[in-house]
What we know:
The complex is a heterodimer of chains A (371) and B (357). Chain A starts with a strand and ends with a helix. Chain A is globular. In chain A, helix 9 (252-273) packs parallel to helix 13. Chain A is of the alpha/beta class. Chain A has helices at 14-26, 36-55, 69-79, 96-104, 125-131, 154-163, 183-186, 235-250, 252-273, 300-309, 329-333, 338-341, 355-370, and strands spanning 2-3, 63-66, 87-91, 111-115, 136-140, 167-171, 190-194, 205-209, 278-280, 290-294, 312-313, 318-319, 325-326, 344-348. In chain B, strands 12-15-14-13-16-17 form a six-stranded antiparallel beta barrel. Chain B has helices spanning 12-23, 45-59, 69-85, 92-111, 153-157, 168-178, 199-204; strands at 3-8, 27-34, 63-67, 116-118, 123-128, 131-136, 159-160, 212-216, 221-225, 252-258, 263-268, 276-287, 297-301, 309-316, 320-330, 337-342, 345-356. Chain B has 357 residues and is of the alpha/beta class. The radius of gyration of chain B is 22 Å and the shape is globular. The interface between A and B is medium-sized, with 13 and 17 residues.
Amino acid sequence: MIYFDHSATTPVHPDVLDLMNSIQKGVYGNPSSIHKLGRKAKSVVENARKQVAKSIGAAPNQIIFTSGGTEANNQVFWSRINQDKKHVISDTIEHPAVLKALSQIAIFGIDHDLVTVNEKGCVSITDLESAITENTGLISIMLANNEVGTIQPLKEITELAHEKNILVHTDAVQCLGKMPIDVNNLGVDFLSLSAHKFYGPKGIGILYFKNKESLSALMIGGGQESGLRAGTENIGSIAGMGLAAELATDELGNHITELKSFESSFKSELLSFSPNAIFNGDPENKLPGLVSVSFPGYRSDILLAKLDRAGMAVSSGSACGAGEVKPSGVLSAMGVDDKTNISTLRFSFGASNTSEQVDLLLSELKTILTD
Amino acid sequence: MGHLAVGMSGGVDSAVAASILVEHGYDVEGLFMKNWEEDSEYCNAEEDYKDALQVCDTLGIPLRSVNFAKEYWDRVFQHFLEEYKAGRTPNPDILCNTEIKFKEFLHYAQDMGAEKIATGHYVRNKEVAGKVQLLKGLDPGKDQSYFLYGLNQEQISSALFPIGDLEKPNVRESAKKLGFDNFDKKDSTGICFIGERDFKEFLQQYIPAQPGIMVTSDGRKVGEHDGLMYYTLGQRKGLGIGGGHSESEGAWYVLDKDLENNELIVGQGHDHTGLYQKCLTASAVHWIFGEAPENENLNAKIRYRAKDATCRITDLNDAEISVEFEEPRFAIAPGQSVVFYENDVCLGGAVIDKAFN
């Protein structure tokens, strides 16, 4: 199988895997225990915290470990219940971990409004500004979109928000390792990450927070993570995430260059035999290596099945429980009509790819599309 | 060997059908169809998908998913509702085969590159003298040709029916041997989208009920009904008529529906003459070979679970057919199909409009 679905998840980096194995084997102490084994476990967790913090320019005590991006997002929103200002603004192309969480907390009196995006998938500052009410306490806008890769103007958003005493959260799970992230430069108050998107393990992520005052715990128990996330730490995964974050930022420049080269050769070559292909999103302001393409006249699930048979993994729209393909809400929100929508595939290149693999993909696509 | 797409339902029949094709060396892909947009305690698409996935993983074949809920709603379910509104008793599984499984699903599989499809139906097909026959499954208790009478030559020749010559206990045994989790899964009964839920409650969501009275054929009121659509001709259970229920008179049965007056005609005893008719007319006639059989003396089933009975086609044109049975048949229900056979060969059928003597 050749893997072109790195935005869905990534293979675990071999060094990360080695580290996790050795920790699972050797460091079985509980970080809350005060004996030597406990202290060893504790230092593994704290070392990882420093690594992850450094990768986004945060202080270690501004990070808690969660089960992933979904939990981190949920914690920010559910925390609103204990805050005075109960109106939240987000946008129409967020991940369900934002949109569904927001719908769910409506019954606790947290209202929200969603601003629309333009045809490139970008929110407008003017729209955001006019959605603000006196009661707005939080704006949540993803740093970059998972389906089309469009990067949002977070810095401008936080400037606007902070003028009005509004906090800003960003779901940045797609971004680490594909663009520089500096929480101070972005100015955000909360940021979510998930390790499996940057060659770390699944089931572990972080929530960054500028101040802990506006945050409440979702998991209550033994007081771990400064009381903000109880439960015995997932040490192996935490350590793996720490190293993965470090590797992702160390290799950032080279990785971006490589992804850009995959992307540009893929796009230009694809157009040579499939001139009607439409690239979705913002051609400039986007994550490198993530390419959303519509093939008018085709059905994405058929294309996907044919690529799958040829041993190539790509994705289309958002899959549901029973595995079937539905029109993408993100593309609809960007104004893509239903027919074009269901003809869309997402190719996301990554560290496991080579240019030879990209060539193989192109030749398979050529066979399928010109058959 | 060829590239095949097997319709996987999550049940044991399609699982074993797929396993037979894999064993024969075909390039097999599983295709899971979702035809109903609901995941409730009654409609377990996700559970069924997991079962299908376990089977495909065991066989080492891919499983893909496809959603025909819109097509099903437009072409099968709407018709189902129309029929109930008209006081008839439709059989949506027949339409599901002609409109969805052997049309949408078939085309989808062909688009995917499959040469043929395969299903876990208990039927067989065979080419004889340039025509493809649809034959009954060899397990007499399981034969499903009744549900497939609406297929044409192209549809039947595009399909493989790997378990048509097996008996159900062997299918289950084979599934168990192969390590399929669904080897002892309960057979699905009734209408797939209704599942185990209460039929009245289900129908009420879509069609307003019009309660009325139950009368005997000589006009005597004996009870009240909840809406004619809830009753089927020949139905005994659930009439709720008290009194006069002594052993000598026997249980109450639905004899007929008077739509005009919204009255349910009932009568007592399984032998009530109002329950038996020798003749019927039917429309939406379909012949599997593309033309009516030369032989007028055939066998026919008037519902899935009815026995074949000798009959004669007395009148026939493109739109309508008249049939006379040798012996009276019990509870011929409009909306159900009459399906014709010559020995094991299914010839076609039509949708029953009325029965009479």
